[in-house]
């Protein structure tokens, strides 16, 4: 199994203490992609077909606590509720933990607490698996560097590799078959005035996982062959926008990138749409406000909720037009 081989290579680099701590604990922020990851070159290792770029959301994310328990099977808690072991998320957690179990008889208790809605397109699996990788590093005292922690997080969920470090994070697509050059790395620039507005239209779980949607898009969308070039162009524009603090360029590029990803999904078969009628209404409101001169853009992930992009000076206006919006300023000092 390729994942086991990657884990063995990485753990050889870390410290190898004889045993583990009593408890492992870590927090990881969630991240919002400005240039999306949509499609894999290796489905087992979650190696992406293209690079991507995200913004980590500071204090919004997941905390994970790990303990060893004296029983034959793991127990998982998500936001205070025990998880049935047969749910898809529990199976993903178990398969991931199997990579690190010192013995078959070793069972974990995993407690994950998020302060974002689960499975509503706010990258809860990204911060969940990132916090788990960091908690394992704490529990086993491996003392791995961020690059290798990012690779371990990616084995749980692709976008988790962008949740190990703060700020703007580029996920290098890499070329190696084992993915040792495919990891998230923070850009050195920060943009303290940049705001994200979370417009939560529903907290219902999405009907189709992003994993399945991604696979279907790659397999059936006749537009997919245009995606790598779109990403290459947008990544360069976003990096330029961040360097020059050019908000119009950042907003236009991020919104266009998200809409293109959703256009790929609409052209898949069977077609995929994560939008609700309310999503489309909110998009149209953003376009109207922009026509009226407000510098506001949106991005959308694999769910119906929108994330607005704007600058701190316009926060009050945005609040007035989107009652209930949660405004985050991830890099405010
Ligand atoms: C992203 N998304 O770049 C894109 C845009 C959703 C929309 O990464 O199969 O949970 O675990 O690698 O990371 C969500 O997909 O998928 C995602 P897997 P993941 O944020």
Describe, in plain words, how this protein is organized in 3D.
This protein is globular. Helices cover 36% and strands 23% of the residues. It has nine helices and 13 strands. Strand 2 (40-42) and strand 3 form a beta hairpin. The model has no long low-confidence stretch (mean pLDDT 94). Helix 3 packs across helix 4 (146-156) and helix 6 packs antiparallel against helix 7 (247-266). The strands form three sheets. Strands 1, 4, 5, 6, 7, 8 and 9 form a seven-stranded mixed β-sheet that branches. The longest helix is centred in the C-terminal third of the chain and has 20 residues, at 247-266. With 333 residues, it is an alpha+beta fold. It has helices at residues 2-13, 88-98, 124-139, 146-156, 210-220, 227-244, 247-266, 277-291, 315-321; strands at 23-35, 40-42, 47-48, 52-69, 75-78, 81-82, 107-114, 168-171, 184-186, 194-199, 297-300, 306-311, 326-328. It binds ligand 2P0. Ligand 2P0 binds next to helix 3 and helix 5. The site of ligand 2P0 has 16 residues, from helix 3 and helix 5.
Summary tags:
alpha+beta, binds ligand 2P0, seven-stranded mixed β-sheet, 333 residues, 23% strand, 9 helices, four-stranded antiparallel β-sheet, single chain
């Amino acid at each position: 199994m390729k994942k086991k081989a990657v884990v063995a290579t990485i753990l050889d680099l870390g410290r190898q203490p004889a045993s583990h701590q009593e408890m492992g604990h870590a927090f990881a922020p969630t991240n919002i992609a400005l240039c999306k990851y949509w499609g894999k070159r290796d489905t087992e290792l979650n190696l992406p077909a293209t690079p991507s770029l995200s913004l980590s959301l500071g204090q919004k994310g997941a905390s994970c606590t790990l303990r060893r328990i004296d029983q034959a099977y793991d127990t998982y808690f998500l936001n205070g509720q025990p998880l049935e072991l047969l749910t898809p998320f529990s199976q993903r957690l178990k398969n991931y933990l199997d990579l690190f179990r010192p013995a078959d008889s070793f069972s974990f208790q995993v407690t994950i607490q998020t302060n974002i809605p689960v499975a509503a397109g706010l990258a809860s699996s990204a911060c969940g698996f990132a916090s788990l990788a960091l908690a394992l590093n704490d529990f086993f005292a491996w003392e791995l560097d961020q690059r290798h922690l990012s690779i371990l997080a990616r084995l749980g969920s692709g976008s988790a590799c962008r949740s190990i470090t703060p700020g703007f994070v580029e996920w290098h697509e890499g070329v190696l078959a084992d993915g040792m050059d495919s990891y998230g790395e923070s850009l050195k620039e920060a943009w303290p005035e940049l705001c994200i507005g979370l417009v939560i239209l529903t907290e219902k779980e999405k009907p189709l996982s992003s994993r399945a949607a991604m696979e279907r898009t790659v397999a059936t969308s006749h537009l997919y062959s245009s995606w790598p070039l779109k990403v290459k162009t947008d990544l360069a524009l976003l990096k330029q926008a961040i360097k020059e603090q050019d908000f119009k360029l950042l907003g236009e590029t991020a919104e266009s990138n998200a809409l293109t990803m959703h256009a790929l999904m609409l052209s898949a078969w069977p077609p995929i749409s994560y939008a609700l009628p309310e999503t489309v209404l909110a998009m149209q409101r953003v376009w109207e406000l922009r026509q009226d001169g407000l510098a506001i853009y949106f991005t959308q992930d694999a769910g119906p909720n929108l994330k607005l992009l704007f600058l701190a000076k316009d926060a009050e206006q945005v609040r007035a037009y989107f009652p209930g919006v949660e405004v985050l300023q991830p890099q405010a000092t």
